[in-house]
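Recap quiz, item 2
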Amino acid sequence: MEIGSFIKLQRVKQGMTQEELADGIVSMSYLSKIENQRTEASPEVISMLCTRLGIELDSDKDITIKEKCENWFNMLFEVNDKKEITETYNELSELLALVRSDSLMMFEIHKIRYFLILGEYDNALEQINKLNEVSGSFDSLHLFYWYKFKGNYSSLNSEFAQAMRMYKHAEDKLNQIKLDEEQVADLQYTMAVTHSKLRNTLESIEYANKAIDLFQKEYNFIRCAQCHIVLGISYRRIKMYDKAIKHYNLARHLGELNKSKQVIQLTNQNLGYLYSSVGDSKEAIKHFIEVVEDEKLEINERLLGLTNLIKEYYKIQNFDQATKELERAKHLLQLSTDNVNHRLYEYIIHTFSYAISEQHEQFTSLVMEEFLPYLQKRKDYGNLIVYSNMLAKHFEKVGRYKDSVKYYKLANLTYEEVVNI
Amino acid sequence: MKKMIAAIALGTLLVGGFLFTQDNQPTDVATGESEPSILKAMSINTSFDF
């Protein structure tokens, strides 16, 4: 990292103006030239500026910092110990505040991913805004991570089209830099997931296959399993069910070999969904039950399994079992009030509760006035189709044909939007 | 001349429409199907909660 960019970054980080930093050392316009690398300042000037910023210039320490930084960057991809990541982060922050290091810019960029991993999205956005000011001085490697992590931020905020734009920028940088194959595979895997979210099925298959090839070479079987799940979802969507099942089974096998409960249960979740979509409720229920019964699993994943199970029991009109599962879902929901999908699950649970107990007024009022507008706002088109259909069927059953047509039409229009006819 | 104006107007509408649909791509459409996380390699020891 150039000394000019380093000084600018440190000044911005400390909230200092150019005038304050330059005062008594150089003119403001000269400092601006140094920061923008339009001139090379003398070592004395650099030393004075660094002293004012409270930074040491020590090349021995820089080597240690570089190693520590690389270790920490790797943790952000593979190590699952939050405590260890935070401890190393604190140690590095302290070191980098005192010593001039070439790794500083990379560290600052990786902080975006760090905050995302901790779920601190506001801090990640603040970091992105802070780095925007100095992004003009990024080299190709910096730009690769900059775009990738900005894409990660958009992905986690469900802005998948924007995320994809960022990932494509990162991908464009690949031919200008030299990266480990695993890093390339990670970007390809991320793009496969994002294409899947956007329902770009063929692209999702293409990227997942590319990523699998590289992860296999690195013997990273968990990541391979994750790619197989993405492929399973994609093949189900294009109705190639045998191929989808094959990929899910491969994912489960890899999950079992690596004792990864999450991979196994995510496979069950998706296999259940596949069997449900082909009308095999018995098999679907079997897989959903496996997810629901696993108490080691995170509540969000169990709630997804439970709502799927409730839908399936409702579909085959086994209302006793559906009611039993609804009680279990209500209990789980109380345990996870900070869940991002809390409201969605709450609406689903109440919708089925009212539908099963035939509380028609409560059912129509909840779905019409609250649930459907909520799904429209979230652009959750899949659920919008499911629940506007459910409401339309209800209206049809009670003879309110005009209302029924209205919601069948909503489901139909939403479907057209999803498939981009 | 009229034909040309009509052609330009139609072309603008088509391009505008295309750009509009590009920017209004559906976002998360999961209804029970669930993709793995983009951030973590899943393991039984995981302590992440996203």
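Residues 1-27 of chain B form one domain.
The two ends of chain B are 60 Å apart (CA to CA).
End of item.
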